[in-house]
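Example record

One chain of 247 residues, shown exactly as stored in the release files.
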Amino acid sequence: MNLGILAVALLAFGAVLAFNRPQDDAPAGEQAVVAENESLKPTENQTPSNVQVGDKALLSVPFVAQAPNANWDDPRQQDGCEEASLIMAYAWTQGQTSINKNEAEKTIIAMSEFEKEQYGNYLDLNAQDTAKLMKDYYNYSNTRVQLNVTIEDIKKELSAGNLVIVPANGKRLNNPNFSSGGPVTHMLIIKGYDDAKKQVITNDPGTRNGNGYVYSYTTLMNAMVNYPSGYHEDQTGQPNAMIVVMK
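Predicted structure tokens for this chain:
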């Protein structure tokens, strides 16, 4: 057979194969980018509509402060509320009942260094990027982010047995345990609520007294804001948000 004719035939056969290749065979890098971007998008409320919301709910979540051994001079622990919240949330998903302070401190430092290497800094992370950190660091992706949250949304998630993490302006929480009135950007766990008292029950990593710390519904909702990732960026016009963590 003429070599020129054979080459043309082979090229045509290859083109047919390429045209008919299943889309699932796309390069792994392209698929990873799409999946990663989709995981960061806030979603609509996906909690089943038949969840019964009672007068109260309380999940058993182990506590650790963001400076577990009170080493507040370490900037990684000063800005460690997102990391401490993820440590508590992940421990809860694994059925842990307590968190070792020394191990938690090592993890906060290690996670901060991981963020610095992967994202460029370890300072403020909004809800979407905190959920991404949980996926990237712990390989745990059974989470979703919802914007424009109401107290009823939070109660519904807790009643469904899901854990809630919220970003907030810490100064608006008016927590007397905070120094200098509290941080402008803060993140905390909501593990329960009490409708009779109109209070949420939290694990607030910003204080050693944060285990089971309560805030009124009004105080929490006034403080919640999905602050931008970065470092103390302008919060004007930002919606509130919650990260829902499911087992």
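Notes: The chain is about 40% helix and 15% strand.
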